[in-house]
Every structure is written in C-alpha cells, then in structure tokens.
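Q: A small favour: would you put together sequence and structure tokens for a protein?
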Amino acid sequence: MTLNATIHDCKRRTHRLKPAHKIEPAPLSETFFNMFLVSRLREAKVRRRLEDERVQQAAGRDRSKSLCVERLASLLHGYDPATLAARQLNLHNIQKRRASSAISSSNDLISRRGVFSRRHYGSVEMLPQVENNGQESGGKRFRVENGDSVTKECGEMFGSPSTPVLENPEYQTRWYFKYFLGKLHQNYVGADADREPFFLSVVLSEANSQCGPQYRAILWRKYGAQKIVLPYTSNKPMTVKQILSNFPNMDKLEKGPKEIFTPEIQKDLLLLEEQEGSVNFKFGVLYTKPGQPTDDEMFSNEEGSEEFDNFIDLLGEKIRLKGWDKYRGGLDVKGDMTGKYSVYTIYEGHEIMFHVSTLLPYSKDNRQQVERKRHIGNDIVNIVYLDGGAAHMHEFNPSFIKSQFTHVFALVAYQKEDESYRLIVFSEESVPLFGPSLPCPASFKSREEFREFLIVKLINGEKAAFNTPTFSKKRERTLDMLIKDLYSEHMADSGSRVTMLNRRAFSDVLPDPPKTSRRKEEARQVEFVRIGQALKLDTIVKGDAPTSLATTGLFKRAPWEPHCFYPDFGHEIGCGDSWAETRLIVGTENGVFLVEDGVTHKQIFDKSLQVKQLHVVEAHGILLLRADKGKDGKIYVFRLSDFESDSNTELVPRSKQDVKEHRLERTRGCQSYAISRPGGSHLRMVVSFGKKLLMMQWRHSAAWTAWCPASDTDTVDGFLYLREITVPETPQIITLIDSSLAASAGGSADNHICIGYRHQFDLVNERTGEVKKLFAVQESTRSHLVAAVDLYEDEEPELLLCYNNTCHFQKLCDERFSTEFDFHWNSIPQAIVCAFPYILAFTTDSMEIRLIINGNLVQTLAMPKLTLICSKNDIFFSTTAPEFFSGKTERLQVETKLDRDPSLSPPPSPHLSPEVRPFRLYRIPLHSLSGLPPCKYRCPSPSPDIDPKTPPQTDSPRSPGPHLLVEPPRGVSRSCSASPTPQVFLSQIEKPC
C-alpha cells in the first residue's frame, strides 16, 4: 500500500466518526495519527518485501548474472550437447569469478557508484567473451549500457537523454597551451620527497574585466598534470615553495626547485601536455548483418544497405581522400591505398575521421580483410551498425570482434516502424563510467539529436578509455621517460643565478634585477615570449590545438546556463535561502531583505540584527536566523506569515529590540547550527557551542503539518530539547545525516552528525553521542575544510567531504570504498552543490562544474565577486552586474519580466553609479541540470530517527510521537537516491483541519 493510500484510508476512517450535524470534531491526536500511519507503513513494507522475495524465487534469477549473459545463454540453442555443456560450464566459472573481480582495482572505479552507475550509466554487470568452440576467451569482458538494464522505474524517471556535454574539453583542460604558451611565465624543475622529478609552471594572470590577478600553476609528474588556481595578494606575493605546498605531498622537499630560463623549455612542456590525449579522433564504423557471429563475416560485407548509407550521411561529410589536407586519421591521402573516400566531420573544434568498413579496400582473396581490420581494429572506439532493426541487437557480442585495442563498441540499429535509431554501448570492464547517460528506452527519433548524442558519447568514451590500465600505464611510462630526460638535461645546466631563486616571488619575473643585467633580462623575456608565440602558431597550423569551436552539431543551451532572477541588488550577500518559487530571503551587513522576482526588494530586519545564518523551512512555515557572534550569538524563530504582504504594502523593518520574544532558549552563545534536510519525518536542528552540541527537534511531524497546517503555529515553543553531546573540538562544519533504516522507518539504525574540524571529519551518533573518526586529512597539508555534503544511493548514505581543492567520497557502511574515488578542483571552493549528474564548486570569482560520476571537468565560468546564496531547490547565486565591466563581450543570459527582448544584453542598473557595482542575482533551475521537467520528479530523503523508547526532555506537555516518512513539496533532488516521489504526493490530501 502506498503512503497516499494509507493517508486516504486514515482520513476515511476519521470521517466515519463525524456526527451528523455540522459541528467539526477536535483534530485527531497527532500521536495516534503518527502511530497508526507508521504501523500501516510497516505492514505494507513487510508485504512488499515478501512479494519481492516470491517474485525473485519464481524468476530464479541470480542478481550476479547479467541480462546479457542470460540472452547469450539463450543463443546456445542449436549446438550439440557437448558444446552446450562446455559453454554452460564456462558461463558458470565466469559467474564464480565475478565475486572476486568485483573488488579488483579495475572495477573499483566502475562499481563504487551504486545508484549512479545502475540508474544512469547502465548495468555494471559484465558480459563475458566466449569463443565459437564454447571455450572462454582470454580477452576482455564488457559492461552493457542499453537504457533497459536500469531499474524498472527508469521509464518514469528519465524520459529523455541527459544533455550531451564533452568531458574534460581541451579548451578547459589544456592550460599550458591556453594560459602559458606565448605569455611571460616561470618554469621550475625539481625532485619530490621520493626523489621523483617534476616540473612546475606558474603564470601570474593580469587583472581583467572579470576578476583580479591570479596564479595559475601546473605540476608536471609522471602520473599526469595537476592544476590549481591560487589568489594573488599584491602586498604578500607567494614563493615557489608556497605554491608547491598547495599540491598533495609536495610540502616536504629536501631541496627547492630550480628555475629554467631557456625559452626552449616551452616546447618540452607542450609535448608533456599533448600526452593527455589527442585533440582529433578516429572512430571505426563496421557494417554487419544478422547472423554474422564473426568479424571475418562482418568485414567481408562489400556494400551496405540504404539505411546504412543514410546513417553514414548522418555522421559526416563524404570526402575524397586523395589530396585531402585536413586531419586524415591514418588514411592515405596520396595514392588511394586506403580507399578513395572516407567520412569526416568537426564537432566543437575536434576533427573526426570515420574508418567506414565499406569504404576501406575490399579483397575477394583475403578472407580476413586485413586492410579493413588494420584501421578499424586499431581504433579505441567502434560503431557497429546492425542491419535488420533493433530486434537483432541482442545477438551481438563484443567477443565477435577480435581486437585487443578496441575498448568501446556503440551498437546502432535503425527501426523502420517509427523511424528511430536504437543505441547500446559496450565498454570494456576497466573503462571508467562516462556520459552522457542513455535515455530509457535508448531510442532517438530526431536524427540531429542522435548524431550529437552519439558523437559526444564516442569522444567521452575514448577519453575514458585512456584511463584504463592498457593506456594509462603506457602514458605513465612515456611521461616518466620524458620527464626524467628533461630533468637530467636541465638540472645539469647550472648557472650563477640559481642561488637566489627560492626567494623569488611570482609578483614579477625579475622583481629587482641589477642594472647591469636589466637589459639582458628584458631581451631574454622578449625572446621567451616570441618563441612561445611561434610554437602556439605552429600548433594551430598543424591542427593539434583546441582553438576553434567550429562545429556541425546543434546549437544548444548549456544546462548550467544562469537566468537573471533579480537584476539590481546593492548589498553584498552573506547568507540566504529560497522561499517558494519566486522569493529569496538574504542577509547582508545592512540588514535582511526579502527579494521577490519582479518586485522591488524589501527590508524586513535592519542592520542592528547582524544575521550570519538563515533557513526558510517551508514545511512548517518558519524562518530560522542566527544573529550576532561570540557570546551574543542567538537563534531566532519567526513565522513566514509575518512577512507576507502584497506589493503595495510597506513592510516595517524590525530591529534587534523587536525580536526578543523570538529568541530560542538555550542558544545564547551559539557559534553555528545545522538543520536536517527536507523530507524527513521531523525537523531536527543541532546547535554548536564550542565542544558542545545541542540537539533539538520541531514538535510537529511534517505529515501532521501537511494534514493539519492550522495546528502548526508555534515559533520558539515549537522546538523541543533532546540531548547534549560533547565532541573533541569546536566544529567548523556540521551536517546532519539521516538514516533510511531508522526506527521510524522500521529499522534499527541511528541518525548521525558529521562534524569537521582542523585535520579530520568525525561521525557522531545522535542517540548515543559516540564519536567515530571518519576521515583524516594529511597533517602536513594545510587543511581548509569546505563542506560535508550528504548523498544517498539506494537509501545508502554517502558523504562528499571537501577540503582544500579535494573532493573525497566516503561511504559510511562499507570501508572498502572509503578511499576509492577522489578528484581535485582547479580552484579552492567556498561552497559545493550537488545537482545530479553535476557537482558545482563556487569560488570567489568562478564556478567550476564537474560530473559526479567521474569528477571530469565540463565547464568553468568566470564570475567576479561570486557568492552562493542557496541550493535547497534551485541554485541561486550573486555576482557583480556584468555591464559594469569594460570590454566584456560575453554576457550571461538574462530573463526578467521587463518588456524587452531577452536575447539583448542585460538592462543597465538605473539607480547606482558604476563605482558602486551592484550585484545581480542569478538562478540555475535544477530541472535544467537534471534534464527533467520542472518540479515533476524529485528524490525522497530517508526518515530521521529519535528513539521512541527515550522520550525527549522537554518542559512541554506535548512530546513527539513516532515518526512518519514523508516528503514535503520541493524541487528536483540535488543528489540521486531512491525512486523519486511525485510532488503531488501531499498536495492531493484534503486538509480537514
């Protein structure tokens, strides 16, 4: 029984008790209401569990088996009994090995994302390779992504594919080419604590129209290049050792690095950067027919069908190879040795050559078609076009194609019935997950949308394949050899200038050179820049540079494109929260303001009340404020209805003297607080007083308030004191973690609190107060704790711990995965927001966007004086109005309620002078990031828990009863968790009170 049905049944029973006359009875007891619903929910939960067990037993299917393995077994029909027995035995052995291989290093990165991989990126189960004789192949095994192998709810969750975006695009990641080459910068060489050589490049960017000067640094090591942006302070320039201390394990150097003055070092560093991968790509396209289980038969198809020719026309332009002067992808362009024609296209600056099997040379005498295999078999990513429609797609197995080099297969079929393309992607087991995720079902009716989706998937797949052991070890060996050779060359070249280098700052290449050498140094700088510019031009001419965004793809809006919410706000925002769909409450040094879309902002508290934190709790209609600091810090509770007014009514700002009766007892001297995430049974709050934590809870459950809102009118009296917890140190970060297995949900688990301080994060049990060490930051590293964000994967809590420029995923229930997946930001964030499938980092002057699934960078947006306001529903942030920056040509798109063309530049601010530089408030809708319709789907949070056997301590005669798992209305989930709950979940309930 669903929760809706349970609540309606409860209402029906209540209405039966009504008398015949019109006098309404007293509201149903909240304790009885909660106990009754919880009992019904537990019964329904047990029935569902028993039903699931019966279904699984009837199906007789082992969860360790892949859907494709079952399909493969069905293909065994028709073989002789000996072959069939051999194949079944091999399949059984394969299944036995999966348990051990699931924790192997090659699978860790794949399997560590439970719900992310299962729901969005296909089954993480493996498809085995089987030879024709029934013996298991010693080759690779593949992961299947087909849109149908995810959970049954996928049709409800994901009606359209995620927006195709390139991961780690060159114009975002090729820093040395973009920011260093052709500009004056400094390069260093040295050895780390393990005596491994490294190179360091640093450039001081000039002040521009978007933000002030910054340090950009690249650390070159054999494992790859690490990048970071650091703030520049004019009166406190950084030294080389201070720059290096911001990289992991680089703060303990026996000897300082040496600066390299020769201009030729730029060519060597550019070569190191080119090892990250190619700017241009070559993909194989193999035409096959139903009933062709070997690659010899596939490669022997001399011509393709009409549908295949249409597909080739969709991919790109058919070009004549002889005399071709652009990217050739290894094909002969002089004597037609590799065929007369090929297919070529450009996508976002990437040149792509397709090796089409039917266009490559065909030989009647060569059964294996070596000339075709030589190209397609050596491509990392292949498209396999299956003629005959999607009904035959289950017949394909990557083991049919013998290639140790190909890691990704994109199986394509055309459906004549609805004129659509179907897509299935096979990835070798060691290939990390990559986007975009396939729709469910994986069917595309728009040719142009399918083309763009497929090309982006192929490019991301090849980039992901470079992180497999096959390629990463080769790249590491190449980098190690290059770096060691360069280290030997430049360390042997010593000079008299080396002695003072470690004292030099990056504020200038030569802060105060002697007069006798000034002219020589200036000449060196000119020559350094000239050689760098010549290298840059030569790279562009050869087509190996990410300079052009020319594309044959669709023009699409980026999912993170911000929309102007309020064009002119004259105060710097310190904190804030959203109220409904069209309002913000923000705290500034000049007071607290109510900002509403299309209406002039109004002040609701004057500057005598210095607000440091605030939260709008719409489920209970209250506003929480933490004002002042130190021993004067207090928390205040207000009703949101106190600030309701029409546009013509003037709100009178309240002062500190007017809010005394709203002060929450026991909170004097508080330093910070945190509340439970929306969707829990009861609102919980933890307040920090040094080493003491105070647990409090709102007396009414969310279900009771939704059913009888007139009964929830409390302010400070609504919070009940629960308990006090002592922790080792004063927390810098507090996050409440809800358990889906809490007692209120029929389980026995406890809720927890994650606290961060100094060099570690701890986990505190809410009920017992027990403190458990969760994660320790290296003591030698300067620890700047950023955030602890709670994520939920199939009701399993996981924390995203952010410190310095590192993001660390920490599972709470399985220590095996506690250190598997870290990634680094290019700048040190001030705030982190998770909006699946993206994760956003906000710094003081930029927004960095990555994918949660693999940490890959997709975009960096420069925004001056950037401040995150809130992300409870949509993401709101403020930045300085862009029209006050001279020379700024790229403008954020603005959507206001003014009668003007929204495609034009933002309207000028009429009230303030350019010197003031007012702030503009922007909004990123979560439905744009998730790809879902606005406010249609969302993910519930697990229910919190307070032990019903231990009543909370309170002076109030009313105490909270058992809890109800309920979801108040809110927007799309910021993380991916269990099946989403429709927003009409509670809105359909009649409110009899």
